[in-house]
Amino acid sequence: MASLIDIHTHNQTVENDVLKIVNIALNDPKDLPKLDYVGWRSVGLHPWYLNEETVEEDFENLLKESENQKVMMIGECGLDRNIPVDFNFQKEVFIRQIQLAESLQKPVIIHCVRAFPEVIALKKHLKPTVPMIIHGFNNHPQICQQLLDNQFYISLGAALSKSTSNATKVIPMIPKEKLFLETDDKNCTISSIFALASTYLDVRIEILKELIKHNFNRVFSNQDLTA
Ligand SMILES: [Zn+2]
Fold this sequence. Notes:
Elements: E1 4-9, E2 18-25, E3 41-44, H1 55-65, E4 71-80, H2 87-104, E5 108-113, H3 116-126, E6 132-134, H4 141-149, E7 153-156, H5 166-170, E8 179-181, H6 190-201, H7 205-219
Parallel strand pairs: 1-2, 2-3, 3-4, 4-5, 5-6, 6-7, 7-8
Bound molecules: zinc ion (ZN).
């Protein structure tokens, strides 16, 4: 198994010693060529590209694609208050994706902008048993604590490169068994993110690699990682 795990990326370039989960937004036409990608992926309907007219078709496509053995997670999906898409419609589609993930027993990778109380409330209400991972977290410690109190996993990325970011403030408070790291759509390497995280956590990078691998194996324990 590769030693560096990138839990959420939009970059499908193969890198030595990196296990990455490439995100494919099935409702973004620009992303569809990525379906030729042969590696591990997450598939979902991204809130940015939701459209009431095509959502049923998009959801059917998601049902079909999610059967693929290479699909490790459903998402990124979630809620975003900074976009003009109707919030209740976003919620409805997010709920359907959580239910799909639960039926497939695959984790959910979550995009959340200014909607943490709603995401937490949905988890409390739906009670999915699959892990839920908040990707690209860069928000206040109080919100981080609320997410942790509700058993979310937290993935941190490029915000760690800014020493004054919220990501650098929250990283020490995240229990090691709840932490993931990612590059997302940023122009950076996962090894640079591991280096930053290891500095902020004051643990050797080799230990951090093992910790994240451990989390990965736990979260994906029911999936065939050799396929
Ligand atoms: Zn992303």
